[in-house]
Each structure stands twice: as structure tokens, then as C-alpha cells.
Amino acid sequence: MNPVEIDPESRSRIPLPRREDLDTEGQKIFDYFTSGSKGVLRGLHGPAGIWLHEPKLAEVYVPFGNYLRFRAGLSEPVREVCVLAMARECNSAFEWAAHEPEALQVGVPAKVIKSIKFREPTASMEAPFGTVVQLIREAFTERSVSEATYGAAVALLGVPLLVDLITLAGTYASTAALLKVFDMQLDAGETHLLPSL
Fold first, then answer.
1. What is the DSSP letter of 19?
2. Same structural domain for residues 128 and 83?
3. For the CA atoms of 70, 175, 36, 62, what is the dihedral angle to 10 degrees?
């Protein structure tokens, strides 16, 4: 993409939304995304700044996303391994850059992060992370989940949390596509951390 086609403020193909252009509900969502609230890793730079171009979507997405990330019952390390695995399968440099530090902060071992990044065999990953990564790889890249992987995932999480985990992964796949369509660039000075697939 030609650099002149990227908005310098939003670092994507579209400008940042302006608070004064939004209705009351849209302004509440804008304020949430700019308040430094838990779970908003990049403010308006990233998916939030894109979602606000359709404020009704953002209004629905915020409680849904917050449920999946913080209230579904997934442990923080399992949640972040799910997000990183999905970012890797989608080759989403922006999601990876936002979530690698978060994963380290919540206790995901650096060795596990490296294994996801370089698509190393999941058998070498410590439990429970290998099961989560294998499930994501099969569901989203191979598009077929083996009985062994399904059984391991149910044994690890149970059916309700497995539903939450895969729904979380799906939201990050959707976000990765959104970021690609609008050509979201990394933050200034940030390095692309993912090797080519």
C-alpha cells in the first residue's frame, strides 16, 4: 500500500472517528475506548477506531467482547494463548503486537509464546497451552478438528468453556480480517514480530 493512502493519525485507510460526530450512545462507547479501561489495549488505534465508524456495532461488541475476555471463566493465560494462536493463524501483526506483552504480563511462558510464533509442534508446549493452540490450528487453518483434539479440549475446558474459547477465537479472526481490510499499521516505532508463514 502506498504510504499516502494511510491516515497518519489512525494509521489505517480511514480516519479516526470524531466524538462530536457521534450520537450520545456512540459518545459513550468513544469515551470507553479512550478511557484506558481494562481490556482496551490500544485506544482508538486499532479495531476500536474502526468499529466506531459503525457505533451500533461497537455498542453491541463491547459487552460481548468483555464477556468473552473477562467473564467467561477462561483463565487469563489460556485466554491470551487463544488470542495469540488466532493472531498467528491469521498472520495478524497488529493483534500479535498488542497481545504478546499482555500474554507475558498474565503469566504465559515466553517459551510458549515463541512456540506459537514459530508454529512449533504443540506436543512440545506445556499443558494446557498445547491443547488450545492445536485446537485453534485445526479449527481455523486445517478446518477440521480431530477426535483426539476435541476430546483433549473437552477434558481441559468442558463444553461451556470450549464454546466460549472458540467464540473468542472467532472474534479475533473477525478482528484480524477487519484490520487487514483497513490496512491497520503497527504503532510508530513498533517492530513486526511475526515471521512469514
1. G
2. yes
3. -60
**CATH number of residue 84's parent domain:** 1.20.1290.10
CB distance 81 to 108 below 8 Å: yes
The total number of structural domains in the chain stands at 2
C-alpha cell at 13: 485507510
> Could you give the CA distance from residue 147 to residue 40 in angstroms, rounded to a whole number?
36
Q: Show the cell assigned to 138.
A: 485445526
C-alpha cell at 180: 487487514
Q: What is the pLDDT along the chain (197 residues), one digit of tens a residue?
A: 455 599 999 999 999 999 999 999 999 999 999 987 777 878 899 999 999 999 999 999 989 999 999 999 999 999 999 999 999 999 999 999 999 999 999 999 999 999 999 999 999 999 999 999 999 999 999 999 999 999 999 999 999 999 999 999 999 999 999 999 999 999 887 877 787 75
